[in-house]
Amino acid sequence: MASPKNSNKQKRKEYEDSDGNSVEYSSPFDVNNQIYFCGVPFRLDTYSGCTHKCKYCFVRAAELFSASRGNKGNYVVPADPNVIRLQLVSAFDTTKERESIVTEWLRHRVPIHWGGMSDPFQHAERKFRVSKKVMEMLEWYDYPTVISTKGIVLTDIAEDPSYMNLLKRGKFAVQVSLITYDDDFLAKIEPGVPSGTERMQVLEKLAEAGVWTAVRIQPMIVNSIVERKLPEFIEKLSKIGVKHLIVEAYKAPVRAEEELKFIWDLCPETIKEYQYSDAKMEGFEKILPTWRKWQYVKVVKEECAKYGITYGAADNDLRDMGDVTCCCGIENIPGFENFWHYEAGHAAKIAKVKGFVTLDDMQQFWHGEKTFPIHNEIMRQKYNAIYGKVAATPKFAIDTYWGEGGESSPECIFSMRQSQRDGKLVYERIDPIPLLEAKKSEQSSMF
Q1: 41, 68, 146, 261: which is deepest, by most CB within 10 A?
Q2: CA triplet 312, 315, 317: central angle to 5 degrees?
Q3: How many domains in the chain?
Q4: What distance in Å separates the CA atoms of residue 208 and residue 317, rounded to the nearest whole number?
Q5: Residues 305 and 388 in one domain
Q6: What CATH number did the domain enclosing 232 receive?
Q7: Residues 152 and 71 placed together within one structural domain of the fold
Q8: What is the pTM of this model?
């Protein structure tokens, strides 16, 4: 065992060598920077790092190219289940003052998204069983939890009564990442993950057991087998009892040259879709233009409606095209009502009915007058310079960008436009479909 004086780097090396006994993941709960447009930004991860090494993974791309991340995708660090247990106990002890945003959101029973950064049921779970221990805690508290996974332990869940009973007794919604049903394609792009056939068998068993299930097509790789086989895929999902479908376009990580080249080689017709003049850069990712996303959204909407599956639009610019406000699809599940409402998707929902939305309209969705700091250092630095010491909170952050506009305001949605009514800033909704179809006609002859 390494001395406590050893550096983090040395500890990580020992962790890697000794199969994980000297380092633990210390931040399992967090509120991510999707609060501006996501209904479930409250995340839980029971592992840091992932051994799936999917070629399209945005987390892996960040690990490989961020100087601040030591992992580089080479090992997996488990969380300490006792840390999670203590956070839950502390949050629900109402004799204590609220000390953090995690406590605040736990007390409001804001649904957790479990597995947004690392798969809770990857290979490491067979050794550490951290996720199973956490499932037991969440089941005991009857806490609303959205599980995101495609891990190898999925097959254990389907066969192991102890896992299945926890899922049935607790407030769990299960989302399985599965971008297509073609096993040959998946074996190339998702090494170390159960086949599409295996994942669909698990989905069917979960549905038969009464567990609410959804499928995440994230990423949607356009002009590839993923997009071309959408109708057949959605029909197959309907037959195995999937309730909901979530779709979001591939964001091409320009720094992850090796991974990006792999995708272009595997899907040679896809690259041209990112060469339109209105494709744009967001950070270090190349993003499809909205009109091009609309082409697969139309197909998804039509096919889902045909089979009684709800559709969640996970592309921020098309959020209001989904059948539900929260793209995860949980809003109609009993016990999940307290998902995060104070965001652009809900603003668009109001504007869709009313024609426009004001910040006053959004106050019905705000819980309480005070919350606590979120990780938003850029905003803190910016407003500290103007106002003195400011701790950025979810409400402060969203209200600020509401006034400034841009990608963290309702303007992130294609149909929303900042305007003025009676001297007050509002966001008006326009019908986006004519504009999207006109743009398609304009761009379709480029290549």
Answers
A1: 146
A2: 115
A3: 2
A4: 35
A5: no
A6: 3.80.30.30
A7: yes
A8: 0.89
